[in-house]
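Design review, sub-item: ligand-bound model
Attendees: FS, YL, KQ
YL presented the inputs for the zinc ion complex:
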Amino acid sequence: MQRWVLIIVSLLCLSPSLFSQQNAREEVYDLRPYTHPNFTRIAVDIGKLREYHSDTLFTPDRIYIDIYQAKLNAILHNKVISVNNGYVNQIRIAQKNTTTVRIVIDLDFEEIKRYQVFHLFDPFRIVIDIYPDYADLTQPPTEATKAAQPTKSGYSMARQLGLGVARIVIDPGHGGKDPGAIGKKGTQEKGVVLDVSKRLQKLIDSNTELEVILTRESDIYVPVENRPIIANQKRADLFISIHANANPRKNYSGVATFYLNFPSDASVMEVAARENATSTKNISEMNSILREILREDKLKESRELANRIQDSIVGHLGKNYKNITDLGVKGGPFWVLIGGDMPSILVEISHLSNSREENRLRTPEYRQQIAQAIYQGIIEYIHSLGKG
Ligand SMILES: [Zn+2]
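KQ shared the predicted structure:
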């Protein structure tokens, strides 16, 4: 006799018209399992309300949940989280097709009493609770959700220049609760840089065989420390973080590109402090970390990539716009550039704190020019390796 009982299989039924109004795929950005003495809870974080369906499959035993109109954040692609607590073996998550994300829980139905799938709001998340055979069901679970650290698994091989460049990770800065810099007209850095990143992705996709991965594809919060981890997991050959700058002096403007190094001057520290602000770690911790991780080959290649991109942006914009200031290429202590095994740069495409540049950043033409310039900088860098 099967001792497990299915209590709830939720199917959120909403009219199709509601979804056609918001048919954009929403990003699934975290998967958090917790083993409690009485049950196992798996929380799946999604930015907005999504329709989902769950069911069971046998030989081997598993529960699956399909989330519709959804896409996975890059850090979760084909992720397997092992639980191994005696009744849940592991959790797998993958993009099943272009619009469906599937979560599979491998478990042993003989060892569980029941399970339930339901959702919670603000932010929208799907929760799967699984009770082992020995669970005391008179003690219902509380919403015990301690913040879980994402597992820092996945480690890429050291980059070998001889292999050339096949894969590029583009990192649109900030997102979600972190807007980044905000201009006088209310233009938010997180939105501008996501748009520029998508334009850049499109250019690379349609003109080359290179694979492009974005660290975020929508307005979600991704901690800066996770971004190079995504690049390592994807075995990326280049990492390009895209930002828009801010400066207390409103007349200050221009384009700058950074690579990871000790700061060359005080102005770099200002930019780094601002861009690092969302990180939990502080700058004093960084010097010792920097000393450990700064490798000569990565530094040299990063500086070279930074030079190509900086020259390309300044050259490109200079042809079409007046007063484009070349703030140059500098080394600086940026968290987002630490930990990636590949040449990594951060580009400040213009200043949102400057009215003229904020106005320009609001236009699709200017964004496209910048994307085009970064694209050409990347291509020139690859050619310089003699492999492109
Ligand atoms: Zn930024």
